[in-house]
Specification:
Length: about 325
């Protein structure tokens, strides 16, 4: 009985990985601003439904399947712990182009938190906002939020972390700009412009709009029986290789709000356009843990209002990979 239950727990906890913000611009159609379709939103995990890993067991990713070996044996895995004792970067200064204009795209939830994917012409990213460093140019494909923050600084971990994912002309991820988020005393203009948060899709347990317990003992008893019945249905489905109603909830798609306008300059202004930062060679923070990513982590924390932070966290579920040992990351190196 224990093994099947563990398998159920693994399936429920598993979900898709870091959003890769796959989206192509399409002609606008009326009455399509709110959609449950998911063609434009995908993940770095090859299958949205059959993910076989979880953030709270990231220590074991490399043993799950051969494609994830890099998560265990890679030499530049992310995230890493940062500190001010080693100083900040004097190299690879990022400069920004086309950030000072409104962009449009899709607003959704990548399964772990808020996410936004920019509209662009098919296979052409060069019209998107871009970041340049040295002789490299990368284009903003989208952004998403992890909670809590992936990177700690001096042992302190922020409430959340925003990742601005940049790709090369072929659409491959090459750079991530990370901004730590914490609650402050005033509203952040960037987050004030966002639509209502899209909740993450739940698996086993309460849905986002379910009501709290009434305290009625008979109601509690019925809920316990219902939960036992639900678990039994799930185990039966696993044993018979037929999807149960509870497992089928993993097929649910998050809402996608289309044609959302957003001023990306506001997020850069909140951290002084990365005037102080750490940089290193790292990886994506979910399987298959692809390396070759240039990370820029802003020293400045972006502060939100308390209500804004509560809204962000309310749309998030745990998505921080365990910090990795520093190896060949070349932190702040030329």
């Amino acid at each position: 009985m224990i093994l099947p239950l563990l398998l159920v727990a693994s399936l429920v906890a598993s979900a898709h990985g870091c959003a890769d913000h796959t989206h192509r611009q399409r002609g606008r159609l009326s009455n399509r601003h709110l959609s449950h379709k998911r063609e434009e939103v995908s993940s770095t995990n090859p299958s949205y439904i059959t993910a076989d890993w979880a953030y709270d067991a990231s220590y074991n990713w490399g043993a799950i399947q051969p494609d994830y070996a890099n998560c265990q044996t890679g030499t530049q895995q992310s995230p890493i712990a940062l500190s001010l004792t080693g100083g900040l970067s004097s190299y690879h200064h990022p400069t920004f182009e086309n950030y000072d204009r409104n962009v449009s795209g899709n607003w959704t939830n990548w399964g772990y938190g808020p996410a936004f994917t920019l509209d662009h012409r098919a296979d052409d990213y060069t019209g998107l906002p871009s970041v340049k460093w040295d002789n490299e140019t990368a284009y903003l494909k989208g952004w998403h939020i992890h909670a809590p923050a992936d990177h700690s600084v001096g042992g302190d971990r922020s409430k959340a972390e925003m990742h601005l994912v940049h790709v090369n002309t072929e659409g491959h991820e090459v750079a991530v700009l990370a901004i730590r988020l914490d609650p402050g005393t005033s509203s952040a203009p960037f987050f004030a412009q966002l639509p209502e948060m899209v909740p993450f899709v739940t698996g086993l347990g309460r849905s986002p709009d379910s009501q709290p317990s009434s305290g009625n003992p008979k109601s509690s008893s019925r809920r316990r029986k219902s939960r036992r019945s639900e678990l039994g249905d799930m185990l039966t489905g696993l044993i018979s290789s037929k999807p149960s109603s509870a497992l089928s909830r993993q097929n649910e798609k998050p809402q996608v709000v289309e044609d959302v306008q957003m001023d990306m300059a506001l997020v850069l202004e909140g951290v002084y356009r990365f005037n102080e930062f750490w940089t290193y060679k790292g990886s994506l923070t979910s399987p298959p843990c692809m390396e070759g990513i240039r990370w820029f982590v802003a020293r400045t924390i972006a502060f939100t209002s308390i209500d804004q932070m509560r809204a962000i966290l309310g749309a998030c579920t745990y998505s921080a990979r365990a910090e990795q040992e520093v190896w060949l990351h070349e932190i702040n190196s030329a």
